[in-house]
Amino acid sequence: MVQRLWVSRLLRHRKAQLLLVNLLTFGLEVCLAAGITYVPPLLLEVGVEEKFMTMVLGIGPVLGLVSVPLLGSASDQWRGRYGRRRPFIWALSLGVLLSLFLIPRAGWLAELLCPDTRPLELALLILGVGLLDFCGQVCFTPLEALLSDLFRDPDHCRQAFSVYAFMISLGGCLGYLLPAIDWDASALAPYLGTQEECLFGLLTLIFLTCMAATLFVAEEAVLGPPEPVEALSVPSTSPHCCPCHAHLAFRNLGTLFPRLHQLCCRMPRTLRRLFVAELCSWMALMTFTLFYTDFVGEGLYQGVPRAEPGTEARRHYDEGVRMGSLGLFLQCTISLVFSLVMDRLVQRFGTRAVYLASVVAFPVAAGATCLSRSVAVVTASAALTGFTFSALQILPYTLASLYHREKQVFTLALGQ
Question: Where are the membrane-spanning stretches (predicted)?
């Protein structure tokens, strides 16, 4: 009894709670990083043309763009024995687990369900890809809200999100490293099957372990009535009425985009320029990341993704995908290093100079990737984009904070 009480108190310690919440952050990023690396080649293998592959990969982000404000509003209003955030976290985590089951087994399921396997296999694969991207990306929203609920003190909150960013980078490192391993030649192949089945089996095991950690997260403190959200106003309803939440969510969907447009119009010009720079930078970086492994497999290694397994062309392509995964692993490793030293760089050179340097580093790396046919140069270029990745995660928020602080100082000076 005493030992159980000691364990319970240990789990409720602030640092233990921080670790338990961020374990799921780590697991999510592992799955998303591995998916970004491995999903485009899988889509090409089943016959999806490159011009349509972008549309498939855009399903999850588009659904997330619409659903995140609705999810945030519903989560703010929710009251239950498991808190406001964890029910949504668990529901989205189940979607991630379903996607990890569907993606490597789309062909097997199609053979069981339909004689004409190719259309059904393609549909199941697209469903799995959409689920992984949508549920994985959207799940970060209630996780961030849970961290804010648990760590309200400003110092504790800053420390919590520092650990959060570190765990994302660490999860990305592992997620990009796993596809770089030849699992067909590993000791697990006789038990787990092919390269895809081994990889996604390990991802499932990692994610289940990280998801189980949230069972020990203390229920967040009960808050007062939530403040109205600027982008989406939700009237108060019975806290346990799921149909009411769904009705309100869909009713407010029609007002979401007009409200967002109004917010953009009222945004100060400085912040609007920062927003445009951030948007364009992320578009460029994510496009580079999504197509990098396929570029290495086809462009550098001269492989063919639709070639029969075991052929020379397919072997070259698979080797290129693994080398591309290694390049993205180095990208995340460099991002991790720069995240640790970013404060020193900003103190030495200034926020604006470091941000501009990171923005310039990306086209230099992308240009070297396009012009060079050296595997070493292309891999080093991919690693260099980790500087941009780290800066985009940290510095725009710092610049926005600096803008608001200087504006407040200027207002106080006028008042005096």
Answer: 20-40, 52-75, 87-110, 122-140, 161-179, 199-218, 274-292, 323-341, 353-376, 382-403
